[in-house]
Amino acid sequence: MIREWTLSEGIEATDELMDLIREESSVSILAGAGAGKTEFLAQKANYLLQTGLCSWPKRVLCLSTKKEAQVNIKERVMKRCGSVGNRFDSYTFDAFCKSIVDRFKNSLPKEIRPDSDYELEFDQKKIKW
């Protein structure tokens, strides 16, 4: 367990950034394209896993709106954290919702239980991020 931690390459350290990374409650990032959201989240996950603040058996969950971001952040965390990065779960919102339905669908009454080849459909007009 490492208590002293510094940023990995890829982002400039500022006091505000370090405060956000060290924040112990959940963090939600809303920013435009190219603002550094993916890199920030990779740094935050690295911090939690490498310092032991997220210790076994706890896991880190990251939800993204796009598949590209989901894959990108997972790769960054695995590169920096090695095997401890296996406790980092990265999903798109859609895939995460499907994983929950898959996990618990057999608990649903048969008349509303989805078939094995079901698909989730989201009405984009009703979803507000």
Automatic annotation (TrEMBL):
Gene Ontology molecular functions: ATP binding; helicase activity; hydrolase activity
SUPFAM superfamilies membership: P-loop containing nucleoside triphosphate hydrolases
Pfam families, A to Z: UvrD-helicase
Domain UvrD-like helicase ATP-binding: from-to ranges: 24-109
Coiled coil: none
InterPro entries linked to this entry: P-loop_NTPase, UvrD-like_ATP-bd
Protein name: UvrD-like helicase ATP-binding domain-containing protein
